[in-house]
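Example protein
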Amino acid sequence: MTAPSIQALTLEEFLNHPYIEDSPAWEYADGDAMQKTMPKTRHSLLQKRLLAEIDGHSETYTALPELRCTFAGRSIVPDVAVVAWSRIPVNERGEPEDNFLEAPDWSIEILSPDQKANRVIDNLLHCIKQGGQLVWMIDPDDYSILIFAPQQEPNVCRGRCPLQVLPGVDLELTAEQIFEWLQINRR
């Protein structure tokens, strides 16, 4: 099932619509507003574990679920947005501002069966072009992770292929380890 879309909006019009924070979130690119697909169990398990692993292995970065990032004419909501603490804008009370207006340092998308891979890749490449340092597209059906980084060839990782992470994230992972998180041990 394809997610609904609304066309011919400006970014400002899109950001003023009350529906964009409905679940699942809406994204905007090139005048087109598209609702993301609703996460399923495997997606949610991978997202939860990635958030915990990244946060548990870095004091420089924080991993945030479903953070709306509006920058360079788009408004996207990566499944996991990893951002340096120093890049999070704060208000006069020292609390984070609600709007994040830059590309995340590391964007992670977990492909759902109903999602269009090229739309996801387009958003990930936009992050790289606008200053992101790393992006992953995790495909649970193919047990693969597509990785993009500036000035590097794309890399598809499967099995014991080590995964590239940000400097400052003390984490060593393989594609195999990530997909093992989907194994539920029954007692």
